[in-house]
Fold:
Amino acid sequence: MMEINKIVQSYLSKKSRAATLAAFRILFGLLMLISMIRFLAKGWVYKFYIEPKFHFKYYGFSWVETWGEYTYVLFGIVIMACIAIILGFKYRLAMIVFFLSFTYIELIDKTTYLNHYYFISLLSFLLCFLPLNAAFSLDAYKKKKEYYYVPAWTVDAIKFLLGVVYFYAGLAKLNSDWLLRAQPLKIWLSSKTDLPLVGSFMNDTWFHYAMSWSGALYDLTIPFLLLMRKTRPFAFVLVVVFHVFTRILFPIGMFPFIMIVATLIFFDANLHEKFINKIKQLLAVKTTINTVREVYLPKVYKKTFLIVSLFLLLQLIIPFRYLLYPGELFWTEEGYRFSWRVMLMEKAGDTSFRIVKYDTGNSFKVENKHFLNVFQIKQMSTQPDFIVEYAHFLGEHYKKELNNENIGVFVEGYVALNGRLGKPFIDPKIDLLKVEDSFKHKNWILPLNDEIKGL
Structure:
């Protein structure tokens, strides 16, 4: 135990230059600002959060409601927080506001779930505890004092989270569909034959497998290549090439740029200091701030370190919660979300709902388009938790409309997974109004009767 304490104390005494966190703060805030403006410019606020009649909720977060037309105000709050983060003005408050408002937006409707939105929520929570305003910030200017050093673990924590995202995404690719069938890349790439230069390869089997295997190898090795000084420049070139290429192939928004910029955290502090000095030159910033050579320490240093450590430990555990469930993960999706399984499956489904009046035996089919938009229908048709939530919504709706409490909601659905033929998905004999969504195994999902081997 004493030996462990010595190791911990030794690590806690290590330091890094504050410029690294200052540069990360500016770039993070700038990318988030661009992302929010882009979201507004494309009309997605209305499309995803205002227009839909019904919003799918994450389990336990049904209390999170859309603000209707005032959702634009919510985005405005995020934008103001981004500007404050860039400037380092009341940084801690700004980052907390960003984390809460950004995450609230994502919780309004799980239809819009993307791995990189989840990553931003996790990263912004982590950044609430790190001193990204210790140098080159309005907070430091106001105090007329900035720090040259920060604890090394405050930089390493960001590196660790990035490493988890990459490495776990690589582990998830070690499955038989990805490696032995080149799925779902084979489906997606075959539709990209119109691309210049590489379009002629998109229908070639060798290219599908090359992309699948290289993608897995990239994710598994890139964190370690970035950590080593000798391989870091080569690794960063790989990062840029990989993410630019995936951005060309797939419509994944700002995620490639976020990951490219975030990996700069692995570089030597000299690079970040040059970046900060360049900004000072461009803005003609003249400062009389006293730069002290001591290490910045939070007021509750050990508690902050403990919170960050527990948070990072959870990131190692949460992705493996799928092991608690039986059945094929890609089919049931129990434990699939929040596990860095990035672009691993292509599902297409056709799910119909039937309302049955128990007192008369009469029934009728629901027209999903009366309640959901096209995007919601696509998402709902292949995800069990969406299906049961929607079934309960329909039950409540028709109980009121028919003035009849004695009804049931039955589902019949077929789903095709990664190029397989469509198979029955939901037990049509189960009244989903009698099923409550929970973390328990959903035994009303019909088995895939196929196995995708791997992690």
